[in-house]
Amino acid sequence: MRRVLASAAIAAVAILALWLARDDSPSAPQLNDLHREARAPAAAVTARFSDVEAPAIPPALDAAVDSPVQPSWELEVLALREALATNAAKAERYIGVLCDDVRELRQKPPFPSPPPWRRDAARFLAPLLDYEKPYDDLEGQLHLPDDLRQRIHSYGNQWLALISDGDLEGLDFEWMSSLTWFDHWSQLGEGPLRYHSADNPMSFPLPNYSSLMIWAKLRYAAAVRRGDLAKASAEVRHLAELIRSQGWTISEIVALGFYRWDAVAHQAAVASGADVSGWVPADLEQLERYKRLSLAAVAFVYPGVNAATARRALDCSPSPCATLIDGAAVNRSLAAFVPADHLQLLRELSREYGCDGALFERLASGRSIEPSEAFRADSPPLFKPDDLARRLGSPQDRIGGESRPRGPTW
Q1: Bond prior to 55 in cis (omega within 30° of 0)
Q2: Alpha-carbon distance 310 to 299, whole Å?
Q3: Which distant-in-sequence residues (6+ apart) come within 8 Å of 69 by Cβ?
Q4: 3-class SS of residue 184
Q5: Model-level pTM greater than 0.90?
Q6: How far apart are the C-alpha atoms of 336 and 316, rounded to whole Å?
Q7: What is the DSSP string of 251-290?
Q8: What phi and psi, each to the nearest 5 degrees, are found at residue 11?
Q9: What gap in Å lies between CA 257 and CA 251, rounded to an integer?
Q10: What pLDDT score does 373 carry?
Q11: How confident is residue 402, by pLDDT bands cut at 50, 70 and 90?
Q12: Rounded Cα distance, 382 and 16, in Å
Protein backbone atom coordinates (compact mmCIF):
# COMPACT_ATOMS: atom_id res chain seq x y z
CA MET A 1 0.00 0.00 0.00
CA ARG A 2 2.89 2.36 0.83
CA ARG A 3 4.32 1.78 -2.64
CA VAL A 4 0.96 2.63 -4.23
CA LEU A 5 0.70 5.79 -2.14
CA ALA A 6 4.17 6.87 -3.17
CA SER A 7 3.30 6.42 -6.84
CA ALA A 8 0.10 8.36 -6.36
CA ALA A 9 2.03 11.13 -4.62
CA ILE A 10 4.26 11.58 -7.63
CA ALA A 11 1.25 11.66 -9.93
CA ALA A 12 -0.56 14.13 -7.71
CA VAL A 13 2.47 16.39 -7.43
CA ALA A 14 2.96 16.44 -11.17
CA ILE A 15 -0.52 17.84 -11.52
CA LEU A 16 -0.89 20.16 -8.52
CA ALA A 17 0.94 23.18 -9.95
CA LEU A 18 0.68 26.51 -8.22
CA TRP A 19 1.28 28.71 -11.24
CA LEU A 20 -0.19 28.41 -14.70
CA ALA A 21 2.24 27.94 -17.58
CA ARG A 22 3.10 31.25 -19.21
CA ASP A 23 4.55 31.55 -22.70
CA ASP A 24 3.69 35.13 -23.62
CA SER A 25 7.25 36.43 -23.53
CA PRO A 26 10.72 35.17 -24.43
CA SER A 27 11.80 34.86 -20.80
CA ALA A 28 8.55 33.30 -19.61
CA PRO A 29 10.02 29.77 -19.23
CA GLN A 30 12.54 31.01 -16.70
CA LEU A 31 9.84 32.90 -14.80
CA ASN A 32 7.62 29.81 -14.90
CA ASP A 33 10.32 27.78 -13.17
CA LEU A 34 10.63 30.38 -10.45
CA HIS A 35 6.87 30.55 -9.95
CA ARG A 36 6.74 26.80 -9.54
CA GLU A 37 9.72 26.56 -7.24
CA ALA A 38 8.57 29.41 -5.03
CA ARG A 39 5.11 27.99 -4.43
CA ALA A 40 5.20 24.32 -5.35
CA PRO A 41 2.99 22.20 -3.08
CA ALA A 42 4.58 20.40 -0.18
CA ALA A 43 4.10 17.14 -2.05
CA ALA A 44 6.96 18.26 -4.25
CA VAL A 45 9.51 17.68 -1.54
CA THR A 46 8.91 13.95 -1.17
CA ALA A 47 10.38 12.60 -4.38
CA ARG A 48 13.97 13.45 -3.46
CA PHE A 49 13.95 13.11 0.29
CA SER A 50 15.10 9.61 1.12
CA ASP A 51 16.94 10.51 4.31
CA VAL A 52 13.88 10.94 6.53
CA GLU A 53 11.12 8.39 6.76
CA ALA A 54 7.66 9.80 6.21
CA PRO A 55 5.59 9.66 9.39
CA ALA A 56 2.47 7.54 9.37
CA ILE A 57 -0.72 9.31 8.41
CA PRO A 58 -2.72 10.04 11.58
CA PRO A 59 -5.82 7.82 11.82
CA ALA A 60 -8.04 10.89 11.85
CA LEU A 61 -7.03 11.65 8.28
CA ASP A 62 -8.52 8.41 7.00
CA ALA A 63 -11.92 9.43 8.31
CA ALA A 64 -11.55 12.85 6.69
CA VAL A 65 -11.49 11.40 3.17
CA ASP A 66 -15.22 11.57 2.54
CA SER A 67 -17.57 13.65 0.43
CA PRO A 68 -17.09 15.89 -1.52
CA VAL A 69 -13.90 14.03 -2.54
CA GLN A 70 -14.87 11.48 -5.15
CA PRO A 71 -13.77 7.89 -4.38
CA SER A 72 -11.58 7.76 -7.49
CA TRP A 73 -9.40 10.54 -6.03
CA GLU A 74 -9.21 9.38 -2.41
CA LEU A 75 -5.80 7.82 -2.90
CA GLU A 76 -4.37 11.04 -4.36
CA VAL A 77 -5.75 13.08 -1.47
CA LEU A 78 -4.17 10.70 1.01
CA ALA A 79 -0.90 10.87 -0.92
CA LEU A 80 -0.93 14.67 -0.76
CA ARG A 81 -1.52 14.56 2.98
CA GLU A 82 1.31 12.11 3.39
CA ALA A 83 3.56 14.45 1.44
CA LEU A 84 2.57 17.36 3.67
CA ALA A 85 3.34 15.22 6.72
CA THR A 86 6.77 14.47 5.28
CA ASN A 87 7.34 18.18 4.68
CA ALA A 88 6.40 18.86 8.32
CA ALA A 89 9.11 16.44 9.43
CA LYS A 90 11.60 18.08 7.07
CA ALA A 91 10.76 21.51 8.44
CA GLU A 92 11.63 20.36 11.96
CA ARG A 93 14.92 18.98 10.74
CA TYR A 94 16.00 21.95 8.61
CA ILE A 95 14.74 24.96 10.58
CA GLY A 96 18.09 25.40 12.34
CA VAL A 97 19.93 25.30 9.02
CA LEU A 98 17.63 27.95 7.53
CA CYS A 99 18.18 30.26 10.49
CA ASP A 100 21.96 29.78 10.45
CA ASP A 101 22.17 30.58 6.73
CA VAL A 102 19.93 33.64 6.97
CA ARG A 103 21.90 34.92 9.95
CA GLU A 104 25.02 34.79 7.80
CA LEU A 105 23.18 36.40 4.87
CA ARG A 106 22.09 39.34 7.04
CA GLN A 107 25.69 40.16 7.89
CA LYS A 108 26.09 41.30 4.30
CA PRO A 109 22.62 41.80 2.78
CA PRO A 110 22.51 41.93 -1.03
CA PHE A 111 19.73 44.53 -1.04
CA PRO A 112 19.39 47.94 0.58
CA SER A 113 16.93 48.33 3.43
CA PRO A 114 13.54 49.41 2.04
CA PRO A 115 12.45 52.98 2.79
CA PRO A 116 9.17 53.83 4.55
CA TRP A 117 6.24 53.53 2.16
CA ARG A 118 4.78 56.92 1.29
CA ARG A 119 4.50 57.16 -2.51
CA ASP A 120 2.93 54.27 -4.41
CA ALA A 121 3.97 53.78 -8.05
CA ALA A 122 0.86 51.74 -8.89
CA ARG A 123 -1.10 54.55 -10.54
CA PHE A 124 1.92 55.70 -12.53
CA LEU A 125 2.80 52.21 -13.77
CA ALA A 126 -0.69 50.79 -14.40
CA PRO A 127 -1.20 52.31 -17.90
CA LEU A 128 2.40 51.58 -18.89
CA LEU A 129 2.56 47.85 -18.25
CA ASP A 130 1.62 44.59 -19.85
CA TYR A 131 0.05 42.00 -17.59
CA GLU A 132 -0.12 38.24 -17.51
CA LYS A 133 -3.20 36.16 -18.25
CA PRO A 134 -6.11 36.82 -18.17
CA TYR A 135 -5.11 40.45 -18.87
CA ASP A 136 -2.47 39.74 -21.50
CA ASP A 137 -4.60 41.34 -24.20
CA LEU A 138 -4.19 44.76 -22.54
CA GLU A 139 -1.06 46.26 -24.08
CA GLY A 140 0.51 48.98 -21.97
CA GLN A 141 2.38 51.99 -23.29
CA LEU A 142 5.68 50.16 -22.66
CA HIS A 143 4.64 47.14 -24.73
CA LEU A 144 7.57 45.85 -26.79
CA PRO A 145 7.15 44.17 -30.18
CA ASP A 146 7.44 40.40 -30.11
CA ASP A 147 10.35 40.36 -32.56
CA LEU A 148 12.35 42.73 -30.33
CA ARG A 149 11.64 40.64 -27.25
CA GLN A 150 12.72 37.51 -29.06
CA ARG A 151 15.96 39.11 -30.26
CA ILE A 152 16.92 40.32 -26.79
CA HIS A 153 16.22 36.91 -25.37
CA SER A 154 18.30 35.24 -28.09
CA TYR A 155 21.35 37.32 -27.12
CA GLY A 156 21.67 35.32 -23.88
CA ASN A 157 24.52 36.37 -21.59
CA GLN A 158 26.02 38.54 -24.33
CA TRP A 159 23.05 40.90 -24.33
CA LEU A 160 25.01 44.04 -23.44
CA ALA A 161 27.39 43.60 -26.36
CA LEU A 162 24.80 42.36 -28.86
CA ILE A 163 21.97 44.85 -28.37
CA SER A 164 22.16 47.05 -31.45
CA ASP A 165 21.28 50.63 -32.31
CA GLY A 166 18.34 49.20 -34.21
CA ASP A 167 17.08 47.47 -31.07
CA LEU A 168 17.15 50.80 -29.24
CA GLU A 169 15.57 52.89 -31.99
CA GLY A 170 12.56 54.89 -30.84
CA LEU A 171 12.74 53.83 -27.19
CA ASP A 172 12.18 56.45 -24.46
CA PHE A 173 13.52 55.72 -21.00
CA GLU A 174 12.24 58.85 -19.29
CA TRP A 175 9.58 56.80 -17.46
CA MET A 176 12.32 54.92 -15.63
CA SER A 177 13.86 58.16 -14.42
CA SER A 178 10.44 59.34 -13.19
CA LEU A 179 10.04 56.17 -11.13
CA THR A 180 12.74 57.28 -8.72
CA TRP A 181 10.18 59.55 -7.01
CA PHE A 182 8.19 56.51 -5.79
CA ASP A 183 9.22 54.28 -2.90
CA HIS A 184 6.98 51.22 -3.37
CA TRP A 185 4.63 49.55 -5.83
CA SER A 186 1.50 47.94 -4.43
CA GLN A 187 0.04 44.95 -6.22
CA LEU A 188 -3.58 46.11 -5.92
CA GLY A 189 -3.16 49.89 -5.86
CA GLU A 190 -4.24 50.50 -9.47
CA GLY A 191 -4.73 48.68 -12.75
CA PRO A 192 -6.56 45.47 -13.71
CA LEU A 193 -5.40 43.58 -10.63
CA ARG A 194 -7.10 46.02 -8.29
CA TYR A 195 -10.46 44.31 -8.73
CA HIS A 196 -9.30 40.82 -9.66
CA SER A 197 -10.87 38.21 -7.40
CA ALA A 198 -8.59 35.51 -6.07
CA ASP A 199 -10.83 32.73 -7.30
CA ASN A 200 -7.78 30.49 -7.34
CA PRO A 201 -5.06 32.00 -5.13
CA MET A 202 -2.41 29.84 -6.72
CA SER A 203 -2.89 31.41 -10.14
CA PHE A 204 -3.23 35.06 -9.16
CA PRO A 205 -2.05 37.15 -12.16
CA LEU A 206 0.95 39.45 -12.05
CA PRO A 207 2.40 42.33 -14.04
CA ASN A 208 4.49 41.05 -16.93
CA TYR A 209 7.83 41.17 -15.17
CA SER A 210 9.62 39.69 -18.18
CA SER A 211 8.83 42.84 -20.17
CA LEU A 212 10.40 45.00 -17.46
CA MET A 213 13.44 42.73 -17.47
CA ILE A 214 13.94 43.45 -21.16
CA TRP A 215 13.52 47.18 -20.59
CA ALA A 216 16.25 47.04 -17.94
CA LYS A 217 18.69 45.41 -20.36
CA LEU A 218 17.83 47.97 -23.02
CA ARG A 219 18.44 50.81 -20.55
CA TYR A 220 21.95 49.56 -19.82
CA ALA A 221 22.68 49.16 -23.54
CA ALA A 222 21.49 52.71 -24.19
CA ALA A 223 23.68 53.93 -21.32
CA VAL A 224 26.77 52.47 -22.98
CA ARG A 225 26.10 54.74 -25.94
CA ARG A 226 25.10 57.75 -23.86
CA GLY A 227 27.88 57.44 -21.32
CA ASP A 228 25.50 57.46 -18.35
CA LEU A 229 25.94 53.94 -16.98
CA ALA A 230 26.00 55.13 -13.36
CA LYS A 231 22.65 56.89 -13.84
CA ALA A 232 21.22 53.82 -15.58
CA SER A 233 22.39 51.69 -12.66
CA ALA A 234 20.56 53.87 -10.16
CA GLU A 235 17.37 53.77 -12.22
CA VAL A 236 17.40 50.03 -12.83
CA ARG A 237 18.20 49.19 -9.22
CA HIS A 238 15.36 51.45 -8.08
CA LEU A 239 13.01 49.64 -10.45
CA ALA A 240 14.23 46.37 -8.92
CA GLU A 241 13.39 47.64 -5.44
CA LEU A 242 9.89 48.64 -6.57
CA ILE A 243 9.38 45.14 -7.96
CA ARG A 244 10.60 43.64 -4.68
CA SER A 245 8.03 45.71 -2.82
CA GLN A 246 5.24 43.84 -4.65
CA GLY A 247 5.48 41.22 -1.93
CA TRP A 248 5.83 37.89 -3.74
CA THR A 249 8.74 35.48 -3.69
CA ILE A 250 8.74 35.64 -7.50
CA SER A 251 9.09 39.45 -7.41
CA GLU A 252 12.05 39.03 -5.06
CA ILE A 253 13.68 36.60 -7.49
CA VAL A 254 13.00 38.82 -10.51
CA ALA A 255 14.75 41.69 -8.71
CA LEU A 256 17.81 39.47 -8.31
CA GLY A 257 18.14 39.40 -12.09
CA PHE A 258 18.27 43.18 -12.24
CA TYR A 259 21.11 43.23 -9.73
CA ARG A 260 23.02 40.59 -11.70
CA TRP A 261 22.76 42.71 -14.83
CA ASP A 262 23.90 45.69 -12.83
CA ALA A 263 27.12 43.80 -12.05
CA VAL A 264 27.60 43.16 -15.79
CA ALA A 265 27.08 46.85 -16.54
CA HIS A 266 29.54 47.79 -13.80
CA GLN A 267 32.22 45.65 -15.42
CA ALA A 268 31.54 47.37 -18.75
CA ALA A 269 31.81 50.78 -17.11
CA VAL A 270 35.13 49.92 -15.49
CA ALA A 271 36.45 48.59 -18.80
CA SER A 272 35.45 51.82 -20.56
CA GLY A 273 37.22 54.00 -18.00
CA ALA A 274 33.98 55.57 -16.76
CA ASP A 275 33.71 57.05 -13.28
CA VAL A 276 32.20 54.34 -11.05
CA SER A 277 32.80 56.03 -7.70
CA GLY A 278 29.83 55.38 -5.45
CA TRP A 279 28.60 52.56 -7.64
CA VAL A 280 28.99 49.32 -5.70
CA PRO A 281 27.58 46.27 -7.49
CA ALA A 282 25.80 43.58 -5.50
CA ASP A 283 27.67 40.52 -4.28
CA LEU A 284 26.65 37.78 -6.74
CA GLU A 285 27.28 35.04 -4.20
CA GLN A 286 24.95 36.75 -1.72
CA LEU A 287 22.31 37.16 -4.43
CA GLU A 288 22.38 33.43 -5.10
CA ARG A 289 22.18 32.69 -1.39
CA TYR A 290 19.20 35.03 -1.05
CA LYS A 291 17.41 33.24 -3.88
CA ARG A 292 18.09 29.81 -2.44
CA LEU A 293 16.89 30.73 1.04
CA SER A 294 13.82 32.64 -0.18
CA LEU A 295 12.63 29.63 -2.17
CA ALA A 296 13.28 27.29 0.75
CA ALA A 297 11.50 29.45 3.35
CA VAL A 298 8.02 28.97 1.92
CA ALA A 299 8.01 25.23 2.68
CA PHE A 300 8.22 26.03 6.39
CA VAL A 301 4.72 27.58 6.42
CA TYR A 302 2.89 24.79 4.58
CA PRO A 303 -0.08 23.14 6.30
CA GLY A 304 1.01 20.57 8.87
CA VAL A 305 4.22 22.30 9.96
CA ASN A 306 4.38 22.92 13.70
CA ALA A 307 3.10 26.44 14.43
CA ALA A 308 6.14 27.31 16.53
CA THR A 309 8.40 26.19 13.69
CA ALA A 310 6.44 28.30 11.20
CA ARG A 311 6.82 31.34 13.45
CA ARG A 312 10.53 30.74 13.79
CA ALA A 313 10.86 30.34 10.03
CA LEU A 314 9.27 33.75 9.50
CA ASP A 315 11.86 35.30 11.80
CA CYS A 316 14.54 33.55 9.74
CA SER A 317 13.09 34.20 6.29
CA PRO A 318 15.13 36.53 4.05
CA SER A 319 11.85 38.25 3.21
CA PRO A 320 9.09 37.47 5.74
CA CYS A 321 6.33 39.24 3.83
CA ALA A 322 7.04 37.35 0.61
CA THR A 323 7.01 34.07 2.55
CA LEU A 324 3.72 35.07 4.17
CA ILE A 325 2.03 36.08 0.91
CA ASP A 326 3.02 32.86 -0.86
CA GLY A 327 2.16 30.89 2.26
CA ALA A 328 -1.32 32.43 2.28
CA ALA A 329 -1.91 31.28 -1.29
CA VAL A 330 -0.71 27.74 -0.54
CA ASN A 331 -2.68 27.35 2.70
CA ARG A 332 -5.92 28.73 1.28
CA SER A 333 -5.71 26.65 -1.88
CA LEU A 334 -4.98 23.38 -0.08
CA ALA A 335 -7.64 23.86 2.61
CA ALA A 336 -9.90 21.28 0.94
CA PHE A 337 -7.29 18.57 1.35
CA VAL A 338 -6.11 19.06 4.94
CA PRO A 339 -7.91 19.03 8.29
CA ALA A 340 -6.19 22.27 9.36
CA ASP A 341 -4.10 25.04 7.84
CA HIS A 342 -2.01 28.01 8.99
CA LEU A 343 -4.06 30.76 7.36
CA GLN A 344 -5.09 32.49 10.60
CA LEU A 345 -1.57 32.25 12.00
CA LEU A 346 -0.14 33.72 8.82
CA ARG A 347 -2.72 36.51 8.92
CA GLU A 348 -1.62 37.46 12.44
CA LEU A 349 2.04 37.31 11.47
CA SER A 350 1.36 39.38 8.35
CA ARG A 351 0.02 42.15 10.56
CA GLU A 352 3.00 41.86 12.92
CA TYR A 353 5.45 42.22 10.02
CA GLY A 354 3.52 45.09 8.39
CA CYS A 355 2.95 43.25 5.11
CA ASP A 356 0.50 44.21 2.37
CA GLY A 357 -2.74 43.44 4.18
CA ALA A 358 -4.92 44.05 1.12
CA LEU A 359 -3.02 41.48 -0.94
CA PHE A 360 -3.02 38.95 1.90
CA GLU A 361 -6.78 39.25 2.39
CA ARG A 362 -7.43 39.06 -1.34
CA LEU A 363 -5.64 35.71 -1.45
CA ALA A 364 -7.28 34.56 1.77
CA SER A 365 -10.72 35.30 0.30
CA GLY A 366 -10.17 32.85 -2.54
CA ARG A 367 -11.54 29.35 -2.65
CA SER A 368 -9.87 26.05 -2.05
CA ILE A 369 -8.95 24.06 -5.12
CA GLU A 370 -11.44 21.33 -5.92
CA PRO A 371 -10.10 17.79 -6.29
CA SER A 372 -11.14 17.78 -9.92
CA GLU A 373 -8.87 20.79 -10.52
CA ALA A 374 -5.96 19.51 -8.51
CA PHE A 375 -5.87 16.02 -9.96
CA ARG A 376 -6.99 16.37 -13.57
CA ALA A 377 -5.52 13.52 -15.56
CA ASP A 378 -4.71 15.82 -18.49
CA SER A 379 -2.81 18.39 -16.43
CA PRO A 380 0.89 18.68 -17.26
CA PRO A 381 3.68 18.72 -14.66
CA LEU A 382 4.32 22.42 -14.17
CA PHE A 383 6.80 22.61 -11.32
CA LYS A 384 10.26 21.62 -10.24
CA PRO A 385 10.64 19.90 -6.86
CA ASP A 386 11.56 22.17 -3.97
CA ASP A 387 14.35 20.14 -2.44
CA LEU A 388 15.24 21.47 1.01
CA ALA A 389 18.29 19.22 1.10
CA ARG A 390 19.55 20.79 -2.12
CA ARG A 391 18.86 24.33 -0.92
CA LEU A 392 20.00 24.03 2.68
CA GLY A 393 22.59 21.24 2.69
CA SER A 394 22.95 18.49 5.26
CA PRO A 395 21.75 19.19 8.79
CA GLN A 396 24.24 16.62 10.12
CA ASP A 397 27.06 18.77 8.80
CA ARG A 398 25.50 22.04 9.89
CA ILE A 399 23.90 21.51 13.28
CA GLY A 400 25.84 18.62 14.74
CA GLY A 401 23.60 15.67 14.04
CA GLU A 402 20.15 14.66 13.00
CA SER A 403 17.21 15.92 15.00
CA ARG A 404 14.20 13.74 15.55
CA PRO A 405 11.28 14.64 13.23
CA ARG A 406 8.19 15.69 15.12
CA GLY A 407 5.78 15.13 12.24
CA PRO A 408 2.60 17.06 11.47
CA THR A 409 0.56 18.86 14.08
CA TRP A 410 -2.87 17.88 12.86
Answers
A1: no
A2: 9
A3: 77, 371
A4: strand
A5: no
A6: 29
A7: HHHHHHHHHHHHHHHHHHHHHHT---TT-----HHHHHHH
A8: -65, -40
A9: 10
A10: 57
A11: very low
A12: 8
